[in-house]
Design a protein that fits this description.
The complex is a heterodimer of chains A (94) and B (116).
Chain A (H helix, E strand, L loop, with lengths): L9 E6 L4 E9 L5 E10 L7 E10 L4 E7 L1 H5 L17
Antiparallel strand pairs in A: 1-2, 1-5, 2-3, 3-4
Chain B lengths: L3 H7 L2 E3 L2 E3 L2 H7 L5 E6 L4 E9 L5 E8 L11 E6 L4 E5 L7 H16 L1
Antiparallel strand pairs in B: 1-2, 3-4, 3-7, 4-5, 5-6
Chain lengths: 94, 116
């Protein structure tokens, strides 16, 4: 049994430094290195709404990947990002 | 719960000449379909149904919900996720799904095997 990432297309990647990057999965390998196209970072802050920073085509090294979430388009489009207030995620501490 | 002894025999992983048994991989495979809570090393806790696991103990959960959605709205639009094994701190399991005696015996046997 292997948990392949094949079915994932539009994803949210949580990195080990607590950042959240949303993009389209173009490729991956066994060490979870990722190729993300049309990516942007969602910056969460407790004082202002979510800021989206456009990144473009990114390669994320597997070491830095914490969680990969499959984004549900419908739920995501109904989100009011401007009104979400939250602390940024903590970084991974081994 | 599946017979761990049998699983271990079949899943010995021959890597670089050393025999690595995949005890916990077998253990998690027997829990596929159950609801678990995974606590990550960044303090995020994700509840979901265990969909699959691999030899690195990467975990795929379906139908997830964050334990504290007010503090962590980051994952609101995510229904399924893949969690890298290296970032897991704990996996909370339902007590009645685990035969702790069997697991303990299997772990002891493996420790003995490893020593030899």
């Amino acid at each position: 049994m292997s948990t392949a990432l094949e079915s994932y297309i539009n994803l949210a990647v949580v990195t080990s430094d607590g950042r959240m990057i949303v993009g389209t999965l173009k490729g991956f390998d066994q060490t979870i290195n990722l190729i993300l196209d049309e990516s942007h970072e969602r910056v969460f802050s407790s004082s202002q709404g979510v800021e989206q920073v456009v990144l473009g085509l990114y390669i994320v090294r597997g070491d830095n990947v914490a969680v990969i979430g499959e984004i549900d388009e419908d739920t995501d489009s109904s989100l009011d990002l401007g009104n979400i207030r939250a602390e940024p995620l903590n970084s991974i501490v081994h | 719960m599946l017979d761990l002894q049998l699983q271990i025999t079949y899943l010995n992983d021959y890597t670089f000449g050393f025999i690595k048994t995949l005890l916990f991989y077998s253990f998690f495979k027997s829990l596929v379909g159950k609801d678990v809570v995974v606590e990550l090393k960044n303090d995020l806790s994700i509840c979901g149904t265990l969909h699959s696991v691999d030899q690195y103990l990467n975990i795929k959960l379906t139908d997830i919900s964050v334990t504290d959605p007010e503090k962590y709205p980051h994952m609101l639009s995510v229904k399924n996720c893949f969690i890298r094994g290296s970032v897991v701190r704990y996996v909370q399991l339902p007590a009645d799904e685990v035969d702790t005696q069997l697991l303990q015996d299997a772990a002891r046997k493996e420790a003995l095997q490893q020593k030899q």
